[in-house]
Amino acid sequence: xxxxxxxxxxxxxxxxxxxxxxxxxxxLAVWAAPRLIMQVLMxxxxxxAMNMHNQAAFPPPVTAAARTVVMPSPDLLYSVCVFxxxxxxxxxxxxxxxxxxxxxxLYAANSDNFFVINDRNAGAKPVNLWLVSExxxxxxxxxxxxxxxxxxxxxxxxxxxxVLTGDYEAEKTVIEAARxxxxxxxx
Length: 187
What we know:
Shape: elongated
CATH class of the largest domain: Mainly Beta
CATH topology of the largest domain: Immunoglobulin-like
Mean pLDDT: 87
Helix content: 25-40%
Low-confidence stretches: none
Number of domains: 2
Structural class: alpha+beta
């Protein structure tokens, strides 16, 4: 059996170190990046200024100068909430009652989208969600009548409501009233 020379052994260990480092950096980036992004989103000074912890917040309409979200759509109005089910369920409700598109999406702390409801799913019915943690117990008597139970895969996360507007200035009163029906409150 042929033995490696010192030169070959050195290059083998360098290559092994490089491959191992690349794999570790890749795994760390894939695991850590989404969590870091969500932490910044949920706990940034802008989020704290909007006071959106277990409470709906209504940022102003998007303009060409707005870049808090990459490539924001000026045709959409956004409403947000950082939910926390650590202390118990969070009740999410909305009654947009619009003929145009709207949606409510829930994101876990690692940025996974785990629930979506929109104008097509809900129809004319109001949204009534009871958000609970995976480890939390829900007693049937504590869930409001007509509420849909949604299990959050993480203790905290992010709610994003989108409302489509073709002409914000012309539709302002109807659209703003619709998006302000969103509530996100501890139960």
